[in-house]
């Protein structure tokens, strides 16, 4: 029996990959979209609080305590706010899909917009509702039935958990107000560490049981292409960003495993850490070394992003103001 591509509906091929938990699994591959996905169900894993177990623990990484997790997420959210919210968003409804403990939504409220969340994990969803006093639903249908519209809909590292993405986006699109925008970040299937370095440790770490959809830039374009058949009024911007530094990749090269307790999702602070080692002294040699370290990393990321190989894919889809 053949499995059809979730994006373009053509027949896919299957191949065996190793999961982060060391299990083997069959993944479907669409050559025309350059998209990979698992047909298995992941919902019970996500609802049952198993995500961090498969994502972190099975790879030998520590699961951060709730407070630490919140603190890290909140810190990272500040850069998202700076990058993606403008003064036009003040007072407007903002929705986050997969809001976890609600750290981004807290930052959204502090910015002056009105936050709403969707979170499938019931422990986290009730934390957001009760401790942060922010409306949080288990799925988007609840928002459909209350006829609310959003100026912006965000999702950071969540698209990879969603089955039937076309239906999902069609439903989301109806929740956007005219002129509204969806901003999604998802890991890139075309990852430089996996495909160019061909780092074996990373190749065996890349696929996670809970994450069932793996997009390349081409796959995201294919997704938008399908959505445009029904909504020719949408405008998209798709690009990749390299969040991890060259120094993170060197760590992989020498150790074949991730850095434990890295506080950033999809990136690291190693360049800044190295700058601290040398930069604190402000003497001529130290400053020259800092410059080399910085310049090299900047050039490294530029080449990667210039070839659509950055580890994050950023997808912005705007609904035209009619
Ligand atoms: Zn396809």
Structure description:
The structure is a single chain. The chain has 322 residues and is an alpha/beta fold. It folds into two domains: 42-242 and 306-319, Vaccinia Virus protein VP39 (Rossmann fold, 3-Layer(aba) Sandwich), CATH 3.40.50; 246-304, no CATH class. It contains 13 helices and eleven strands. Helix 3 (66-84) packs across helix 4 and helix 12 (270-279) runs antiparallel to helix 13 (284-306). Zinc ion is lined by residues 5, 7-8, 10, 30, 32-33, 35, 222.
Q: Which radius of gyration do the C-alpha atoms yield?
A: 20 Å
Q: Give me the secondary-structure category.
A: alpha/beta
Give the assembly state of these chains: single chain
Low-confidence stretches: none
Q: SSE string, helix = H, strand = E?
A: EEEHHHEHEHEHEHEHHEHEHHHE
Strand content: 15-25%
Proportion of helical residues? 40-55%
Overall shape: it is globular
- Within the largest sheet, what's the order of strands? 6-5-4-7-8-11-10
CATH class of the largest domain: Alpha Beta
- Mean of residue pLDDT? 92
| Overall tally of structural domains | 2
Main sheet overview: 7 strands, mixed
> What is the CATH-assigned architecture of the largest domain?
3-Layer(aba) Sandwich
Molecules bound to protein: zinc ion
* Number of beta strands: 11
CATH fold label of the largest domain: Rossmann fold
* Termini separation: 45 Å
Q: Superfamily at the CATH H level of the largest domain?
A: Vaccinia Virus protein VP39
């Amino acid at each position: 029996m053949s499995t059809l591509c979730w994006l373009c509906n053509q027949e896919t091929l299957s191949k065996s990959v190793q999961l982060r938990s060391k299990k083997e699994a069959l993944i479907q591959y669409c050559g025309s979209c350059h998209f990979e996905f698992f047909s298995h169900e992941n919902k019970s894993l996500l609802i049952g609080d198993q995500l961090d177990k498969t994502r972190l623990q099975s790879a030998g990484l520590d699961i951060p305590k709730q407070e630490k997790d919140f603190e890290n997420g909140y810190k990272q959210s500040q850069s998202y706010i700076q990058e993606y919210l403008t003064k036009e968003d003040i007072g407007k409804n903002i929705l986050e899909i997969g809001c976890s403990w609600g750290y981004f939504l807290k930052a959204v409220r502090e910015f002056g917009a009105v936050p709403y969340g969707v979170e499938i994990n019931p422990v986290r969803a009730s934390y957001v509702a009760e401790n942060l006093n922010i409306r949080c639903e288990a799925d988007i249908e609840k928002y459909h039935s209350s006829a609310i519209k959003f100026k912006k809909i965000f999702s950071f590292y969540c698209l990879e958990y969603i089955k039937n993405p076309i239906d999902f986006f069609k439903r989301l699109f109806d929740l956007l107000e005219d002129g509204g925008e969806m901003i999604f970040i998802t890991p890139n299937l075309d990852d430089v560490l996996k495909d160019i370095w061909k780092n074996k440790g990373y190749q065996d770490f890349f696929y996670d049981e809970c994450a069932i959809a793996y997009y390349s830039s081409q796959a995201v374009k294919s997704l938008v292409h399908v959505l445009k058949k029904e909504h020719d009024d949408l405008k998209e911007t798709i690009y990749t960003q390299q969040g991890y530094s060259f120094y993170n990749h060197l760590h992989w090269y020498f150790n074949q495993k991730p850095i434990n307790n890295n506080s950033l999702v999809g990136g690291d602070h190693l360049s800044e850490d190295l700058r601290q080692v040398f930069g604190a002294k402000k003497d001529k040699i130290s400053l020259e070394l800092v410059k080399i370290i910085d310049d090299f990393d900047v050039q490294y990321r530029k080449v990667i992003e210039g070839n659509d190989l950055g580890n994050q894919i950023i997808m912005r889809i705007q609904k035209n103001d009619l």
